[in-house]
Amino acid sequence: MANTTQVETTPQSGGKAKFIIGGVLIIAAIVYLIVSSASANAQYFLTVEEALEKSASGELDGRNLRISGAVIGDTIQYDSQTLKLSFMIAHVPGDNKDLEAEGGLATALHNAVNDPSRPRLEVVHEGPMPDLLQNEAQAIITGYLEEGGTFHADELLLKCPTKYEEAVPEQTG
């Protein structure tokens, strides 16, 4: 009979290490993709004053922003042929304590529109003119800020000022 020798194979510790390293690399890649995707789509929520200050430093270049302010009714211009809408918004404090000190959101909106010393921002939007676009309405706009200080709005959310005459809401803008 032929002499056969059986060779017993034992699992190599190198294979286990390769499996662990591969798993760690896959998890790291997934975490990186999640973080980079989240930061690319992040929106900054700012007041008019904060947006103007940060845009001067170039901190907001190419970023998607959401800005809150009071609509200045005298500046509303709309071209129904081209659907181009432009208006100015004035700075309204973003902190509830500051709003309470001014007498509530409705009063803060009124004060913002009537105080020429408050920071103002020009807004341009293409699309139909919203029904609630009126003097002293709270505007929450999403879009981007150009170098010249014009805000190009992709989305407009307007809140009627009479809604806030009773009390300051829990969250503003």
Q: What proportion of the residues is helical, as a percent range?
A: 25-40%
The level-1 CATH class: Mainly Beta
Q: CATH-wise, what's the superfamily?
A: Nucleic acid-binding proteins
CATH architecture classification name = Beta Barrel
CATH topology: OB fold (Dihydrolipoamide Acetyltransferase, E2P)
Kindly report how far apart the N and C termini lie: 90 Å
Mean pLDDT: 82
Largest sheet, in brief, is: 5 strands, mixed, barrel
How many E-type strands? 6
Beta fraction:
25-35%
Please trace the helix and strand order, writing H or E for each element. HEHEEHHEEE
The count of domains is 1
Largest sheet, spatial ordering of strands:
2-3-4-6-5
Number of alpha- plus pi-helical segments: 4
Indicate the structural class: alpha/beta
Give the low-pLDDT segments. none
What is the CA-atom radius of gyration, in angstroms?
28 Å
In a few lines, what is going on in this structure?
The chain has helices at residues 13-40, 48-56, 96-101, 105-114, and strands at residues 43-47, 64-79, 84-90, 120-126, 138-145, 150-159. By secondary structure, the protein is α/β, with parallel strands linked by helices. It has a five-stranded mixed β-barrel.
Structure explained in plain terms:
This protein is of the alpha/beta class and 173 residues long. The chain has one domain (43-164): Nucleic acid-binding proteins (OB fold (Dihydrolipoamide Acetyltransferase, E2P)). It contains 4 helices and 6 strands.
Features:
4 helices; OB fold (Dihydrolipoamide Acetyltransferase, E2P); 31% helix; 5-stranded mixed barrel; single chain; 173 residues; alpha/beta
